[in-house]
């Protein structure tokens, strides 16, 4: 299989702009860079977002974790990753004023379009966030590039900040990652009005009697003649849809009872 050509040229930049990369909002946004464009050593992922209803291209585990927090937040209305700092001339001018080298393609030597990891809409406010491991901030060249990025957003009166692993709560991220993919579980949705109502009532009964989550789910599957794993997927679906709320600062373990469960809405109500 031929290797993908990742070399950046002015011609390729113009082509990507014409394709609409870095443009659009919500489900219509196209990231400037995709996971196919950048070598990632296996750390890049594509995740279907709840907020945008599209797949997001995340270049590192840290970006993925921060994305989970954004996607789970009720106040976030749009998430645009790998957002380009265009026009290119603006970052070239900033780099010249700073007296630092503008990022270039290592093979072609041509200047590349810099990107911000996340351009986020929170209600009517837009902010920009750069995701970096704390250890990476000790590198002088990294700091130079971050300063170009910071000044770019300052000129546009956009709040910009660096997010490290220290600002990302591990337990909350682990919880979200456990149920995130069930948000669009059509198998659960297609169970139908009556069956989901019965499953919901029985699952709540076992959970409220402090059965471990796995055990409560297995009891539901056996009692209702469902395929093994159905009730557990239903539980995760209800958390993803926020019909049921739990204390997200406490690690959700399927092997233990759920400590707190608040019923916001029912599946039956959502189907009505």
UniProtKB/TrEMBL annotation:
<dbReference type="InterPro" id="IPR014832">
    <property type="entry name" value="TnsA_C"/>
</dbReference>
<protein>
    <recommendedName>
        <fullName>Heteromeric transposase endonuclease subunit TnsA</fullName>
    </recommendedName>
</protein>
<dbReference type="Pfam" id="PF08722">
    <property type="entry name" value="Tn7_TnsA-like_N"/>
</dbReference>
<dbReference type="Pfam" id="PF08721">
    <property type="entry name" value="Tn7_Tnp_TnsA_C"/>
</dbReference>
<dbReference type="InterPro" id="IPR011335">
    <property type="entry name" value="Restrct_endonuc-II-like"/>
</dbReference>
<dbReference type="InterPro" id="IPR036388">
    <property type="entry name" value="WH-like_DNA-bd_sf"/>
</dbReference>
<dbReference type="InterPro" id="IPR011856">
    <property type="entry name" value="tRNA_endonuc-like_dom_sf"/>
</dbReference>
<feature type="domain" description="TnsA endonuclease C-terminal">
    <location>
        <begin position="167"/>
        <end position="248"/>
    </location>
</feature>
<dbReference type="InterPro" id="IPR014833">
    <property type="entry name" value="TnsA_N"/>
</dbReference>
<feature type="domain" description="TnsA endonuclease N-terminal">
    <location>
        <begin position="73"/>
        <end position="165"/>
    </location>
</feature>
């Amino acid at each position: 299989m031929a290797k993908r050509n990742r070399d950046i040229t002015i011609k390729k930049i113009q082509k990507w702009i014409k394709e609409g990369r870095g443009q659009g909002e919500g489900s219509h946004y196209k990231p400037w860079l995709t996971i196919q464009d950048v070598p990632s050593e296996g750390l890049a992922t594509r995740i279907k977002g709840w907020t945008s209803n599209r797949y997001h291209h995340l270049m590192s585990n840290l970006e993925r974790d921060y994305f989970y927090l954004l996607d789970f937040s009720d106040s976030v209305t749009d998430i645009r990753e790998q957002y380009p700092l265009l026009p290119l001339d603006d970052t070239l001018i900033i780099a010249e004023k700073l007296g630092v080298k503008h990022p270039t393609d290592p093979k072609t030597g041509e200047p590349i379009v810099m990107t911000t990891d996340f351009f986020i809409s929170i209600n009517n406010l837009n902010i920009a966030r750069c995701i970096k491991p704390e250890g990476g901030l000790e590198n002088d060249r990294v700091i130079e590039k971050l300063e170009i990025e910071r000044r770019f957003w300052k000129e546009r009166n956009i709040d910009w900040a660096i997010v490290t692993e220290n600002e990302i709560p591990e337990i909350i991220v682990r919880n979200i990652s456990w149920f995130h993919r069930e948000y669009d579980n059509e198998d659960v949705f297609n169970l139908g009005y009556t069956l989901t109502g019965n499953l919901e009532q029985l699952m709540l009964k076992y959970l409220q009697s402090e059965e471990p989550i796995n055990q409560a789910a297995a009891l539901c599957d056996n009692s209702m003649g469902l395929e093994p794993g159905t009730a557990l997927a239903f539980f995760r679906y209800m958390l993803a849809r926020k019909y049921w709320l739990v204390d997200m600062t406490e690690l959700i373990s399927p092997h233990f009872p759920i400590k707190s469960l608040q019923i916001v809405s029912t599946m039956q109500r959502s189907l009505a």
